[in-house]
Automatic annotation (TrEMBL):
PROSITE patterns recorded: HTH_ARAC_FAMILY_2
MF-aspect GO terms: DNA-binding transcription factor activity; sequence-specific DNA binding
Protein name stated in the entry: Transcriptional regulator, AraC family protein
Organism for this UniProt entry: Sandaracinus amylolyticus
Pfam families linked to this entry: Cupin_6 (PF12852), HTH_18 (PF12833)
Xref: InterPro entries: AraC_lig, AraC_XylS_family_regulators, Homeodomain-like_sf, HTH_AraC
Length: 310
């Protein structure tokens, strides 16, 4: 798998490889319901989260992102969860709340039928590459029930909940794979509209010229890429390409190449424990010392230290 990431005759799928490197884990889900007039406030958790509204409606006010009205069948994905208020009425005074690991959580009136029910889930990305990769994803994905493809997300979310509640062999592996599918499905579904609103990987891939360069970098990370060469692939001048790439993706092209090389290197070191010379060659460095210097400068620790701790 990793050799396919680092060298391939076919263009790699950047979104799929990003999600594979994030390695979602520790997946949990629970039912959340509310009745009467209620409002709850959560501090920023930064871990990724999702929710699927099963019945009724509520308001979600996300710090820095605004308010969205959620209705039955709506799906929300947050690759990094900011502080937020969830409420039947945002004019109500919110009650400070912390996440708790229970199967079902009730807000507002404790008895009687709920006016809102949702499936809420959260998980973690592996920390080794999250700082680089999560900002490449959109900060917020909202897919209303009426949108094509929402039914598929509903099925996946329900499978996650079913697997969370069961104590069956292979449970953790199933959950990790289901969340990977959930992420791909949600992100590719709103590809064009997300890209128009934010910078990041999807924005770059939605630009046909930049996408050609991005796919080549992901397909052959070991190649000695230059801005001039990537600009030629995109059909632009060097200056125009560098400005457009930086504005759209969120970082300069050679910084992206460097960060992507180190993300692949971390995964190789964690999984395979090869020699530094082998890792260096697979991610585009001519010597172990050059690779080690670049790795240490970017991460703050040496490849050997990372391999021991990983």
């Amino acid at each position: 798998m990793l050799r396919a990431m680092t060298s391939s005759s076919n263009a790699a799928d950047p979104l799929a490889t990003v999600i594979a490197l994030l390695r979602p884990q520790a997946v949990l889900s629970k039912l959340i319901s509310g009745a009467g007039r209620w409002s709850v406030r959560y501090a920023a958790q930064h871990d990724p989260a999702f929710c699927l509204v099963l019945e009724g409606a509520c308001s979600l006010d996300l710090d820095g992102l605004g308010v969205v009205e959620l209705r039955e069948g709506d799906f929300v994905l947050l690759p990094s969860t900011p502080g937020f208020t969830l409420a039947s009425d945002l004019d109500a005074r919110p009650t400070p709340t912390v996440p708790i690991d229970i199967r079902e959580l009730r807000h507002g009136v404790a008895s009687g039928p709920p006016t809102m029910r949702m499936l809420g889930g959260y998980f973690r990305f592996h920390p080794s590459n999250a700082a680089f990769l999560v900002p490449l994803l959109p900060s917020f994905v909202h897919i209303p029930r009426a949108e094509p493809g929402a039914v598929r997300l509903m099925r996946i979310a329900e499978l996650i909940d079913e697997e969370t509640r069961a104590e069956r062999p292979g449970r953790e592996l199933m959950l990790e794979r289901l969340v990977e599918v959930l992420l791909v499905e949600a992100l590719r579904f709103r590809f064009a509209s997300i890209a128009a609103e934010e910078h990041g990987l999807l924005a770059g891939l939605s630009d046909p010229a930049l996408a050609r360069s991005l796919r080549l970098v992901h397909a052959d990370v070991a190649r000695r890429w230059t801005v001039a060469e990537l600009a030629r692939v995109a059909g632009m001048s060097r200056a125009v390409f560098a400005e457009r790439f930086t504005r759209t993706v969120g970082m300069p092209p050679m910084q992206y190449v460097l960060e992507w090389r180190m993300a692949i290197a971390k995964e190789i070191l964690r999984r395979e424990r090869p020699s530094l010379a082998e890792v260096a060659g697979r991610v585009g460095y001519q010597s172990a010392s050059a690779f080690s210097t670049a790795f240490t400068r970017l991460t703050g620790g040496s490849p050997s230290e990372f391999a021991r701790e990983g």
